[in-house]
């Protein structure tokens, strides 16, 4: 089967039970996507599939055949970190960093749908655990990006 | 990690999917968004040898809210965002929005939510955990760990969409080996069912679509109790739909979910109000009567008395709010 990951086309032959998170980490060596709870509560494995957030640990690899997958490796570019990643660093929006890949993509998915309110940002990360920051600084960072992109 | 391998089938028609289910009867299960089935495989609550993915059956993704048609593979995220669903079937949009988290709603489907496997503190655990307590009725042992004297399973039906669809008078189109049939949604959850086998559908039946009455003009709401504002399953849900006309109530239905093995409509208590309008005290009494009839048991994270208390509160609050909104309309 074929799929696109971060703009690159791959041809892979996963067994039926292969999960997207394992396809990414073990087969494509994209270890930025983290494996956490495996039941949909923690959000650490969040990636984008066709611009929608999805849990890579609750997605069979075969379900993304022909789809466009974005992982944390694709969130930044060769020019450096994304504006959201920079804002997270500047605002203290990450400490241990384990939730950050999923958190960044969950917020990016929300930003892709237009200018969000603070409440909409909070809802967008409702499925992403962060045990360090207490979330406020993450939402602050996302709001900073919203102001940069859409004005106050 | 999935301990047991399986074959994955990706049929493109319902006929093909049902034929596969019949061919591998007892060893197969249908697979929609995967958010309920995959944790079950990780925890070895089941180990099917054949997964039949429904994703490639185009018909199941048909979404035409203008004529009240919602295919079973439509994602919860689509329901939550659709302007027509929000305006005309508000309870459904609210229920979708309160289900799980954005990523789960992007994967999770209408059919999967309607057929959500009932949950219990003693069942939704790893195989190691379940074996250490000796199993329960739902895993084939002969005792319920919550109500030891019971011969029926008390796992709770936590699907968010069902109560909302029920109060709006939805039907479901079901296809099985003998063909297609349309049944009222309440018939999907028979009174004879329990937490172990809650649905009237068989293992080879596919829920094709939900049909909502397209001419329906009602105000509706959905409220959900959960420990956090994040991806928690329902601990008590209340859906209300009503319409007030010149002669009082013209439409009035209430459903409660998240407290028993099936979501329940209370038509026997609401229908007598057609043609009249209840006072605040009468709404209070109606809520109390509904709560007297629901029987939650201690198999979720919140106390049963608290859950009943909240059901009464949701009923009073939402019936009042909808009576006002409908009268002002």
Topology:
The complex is a heterodimer of chains A (152) and B (329).
Chain A: E1 2-5, E2 8-11, H1 20-27, E3 46-49, E4 52-55, E5 68-70, H2 72-75, H3 83-90, H4 100-112, H5 118-124, H6 136-150
Parallel strand pairs in A: 1-5
Antiparallel strand pairs in A: 1-2, 3-4, 3-5
Helix pairs in contact in A: 3-6
Chain B: E1 7-9, H1 14-23, E2 28-31, H2 37-42, E3 50-53, E4 63-64, E5 69-71, H3 76-81, H4 83-88, H5 90-98, H6 102-107, H7 110-114, H8 127-133, H9 161-167, E6 171-176, E7 179-184, E8 206-211, E9 219-225, E10 236-245, E11 248-257, E12 264-265, H10 267-270, H11 280-293, H12 304-328
Parallel strand pairs in B: 1-3, 2-3
Antiparallel strand pairs in B: 4-5, 5-8, 6-7, 6-8, 9-10, 10-11, 11-12
Task: Name its key features.
heterodimer, A: 152 residues, alpha+beta, Ubiquitin-like (UB roll), DNA polymerase, domain 1, 2 domains, 5-stranded mixed β-sheet, 36% helix, B: 329 residues, Uridine Diphospho-n-acetylenolpyruvylglucosamine Reductase, domain 2, Uridine Diphospho-n-acetylenolpyruvylglucosamine Reductase, domain 3, 5-stranded antiparallel β-sheet, 12 helices
Structure description:
The complex is a heterodimer of chains A (152) and B (329). Chain A is of the alpha+beta class and 152 residues long. Chain A has 2 domains: 2-73, Roll (Ubiquitin-like (UB roll)); 83-150, [2Fe-2S]-binding domain (DNA polymerase, domain 1), CATH 1.10.150. In chain A, 36% of the residues lie in helices and 12% in strands. In chain A, strands 2-1-5-3-4 form a 5-stranded mixed β-sheet. In chain A, helix 3 (83-90) packs across helix 6. Chain A is globular, with a radius of gyration of 15 Å. Chain B is globular. Chain B is built from 12 helices and 12 strands. The relative contact order of chain B is 0.12. Chain B has a 5-stranded antiparallel β-sheet. In chain B, strands 9-10-11-12 form a 4-stranded antiparallel β-sheet, sandwiched between helices. In chain B, strands 1-3-2 form a 3-stranded parallel β-sheet, covered by helices on one side. Chain B is of the alpha+beta class. The mean pLDDT of chain B is 96. Chain B has 2 domains: 1-53, Uridine Diphospho-n-acetylenolpyruvylglucosamine Reductase, domain 2; 60-115 and 156-328, Uridine Diphospho-n-acetylenolpyruvylglucosamine Reductase, domain 3, CATH 3.30.465. The chains are: A alpha+beta (152), B alpha+beta (329).
């Amino acid at each position: 089967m074929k799929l696109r990951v971060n703009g690159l086309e791959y041809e892979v032959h996963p067994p039926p039970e292969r999960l997207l998170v394992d396809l990414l980490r073990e087969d494509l060596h994209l270890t930025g996507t983290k494996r956490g709870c495996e039941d949909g509560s923690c959000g650490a494995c969040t990636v984008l599939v066709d611009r929608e957030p999805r849990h890579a640990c609750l997605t069979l690899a075969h379900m993304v055949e022909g789809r466009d997958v974005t992982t944390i490796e694709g969130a930044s570019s060769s020019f450096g970190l994304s504006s959201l990643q920079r804002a997270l660093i500047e605002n203290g929006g990450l400490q241990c960093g384990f939730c950050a890949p999923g958190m960044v993509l969950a917020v990016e998915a929300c930003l892709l749908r237009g200018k969000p309110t603070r409440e909409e940002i909070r809802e967008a990360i409702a499925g992403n655990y962060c045990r360090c920051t207490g979330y406020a600084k993450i939402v602050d960072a996302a709001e900073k990006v919203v102001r940069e992109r859409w004005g106050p | 990690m999935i301990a047991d391998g399986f074959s994955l089938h990706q049929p493109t028609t319902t006929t093909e999917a049902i034929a596969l289910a019949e061919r591998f009867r007892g060893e197969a299960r249908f697979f929609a968004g995967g958010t309920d089935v995959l944790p079950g495989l990780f925890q070895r609550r089941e180990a099917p040898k054949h997964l039949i993915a429904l994703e490639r059956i185009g018909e199941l993704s048909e979404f035409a809210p203008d004529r009240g048609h919602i295919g079973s593979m439509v994602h919860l995220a689509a329901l939550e965002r659709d302007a027509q669903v929000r305006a005309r079937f508000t309870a459904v949009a609210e229920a979708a929005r309160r289900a799980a988290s954005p990523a789960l709603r992007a994967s999770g489907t209408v059919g999967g939510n309607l057929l959500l496997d009932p949950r219990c503190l003693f069942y939704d655990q790893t195989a190691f955990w379940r074996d250490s307590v000796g199993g329960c009725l739902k895993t084939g042992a002969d005792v319920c760990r919550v109500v030891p004297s019971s011969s029926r399973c008390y796992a709770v039906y936590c699907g968010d969409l069902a109560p909302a669809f029920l109060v709006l008078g939805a039907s479901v189109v079901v296809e099985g080996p003998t063909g297609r049939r349309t049944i009222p949604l309440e018939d999907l959850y028979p009174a004879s069912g329990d937490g172990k086998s809650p649905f009237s559908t068989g293992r080879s039946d596919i829920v094709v679509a939900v049909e909502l009455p397209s001419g329906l003009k009602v105000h509706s709401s959905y409220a959900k109790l959960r420990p956090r504002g994040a991806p928690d399953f329902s601990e008590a849900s209340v859906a209300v739909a009503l319409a007030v006309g010149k002669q009082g109530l013209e439409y009035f239905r209430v459903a409660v979910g998240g407290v028993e093995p099936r979501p329940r409509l209370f038509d026997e208590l609401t229908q007598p109000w057609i043609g009249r309008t209840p006072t605040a005290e009468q709404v209070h009494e109606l809520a109390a009567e509904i709560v007297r009839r629901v029987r939650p048991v201690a198999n979720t994270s919140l106390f049963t008395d608290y859950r009943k208390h909240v059901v009464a509160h949701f009923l009073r609050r939402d019936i009042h709010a909808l009576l006002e909104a409908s009268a002002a309309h």
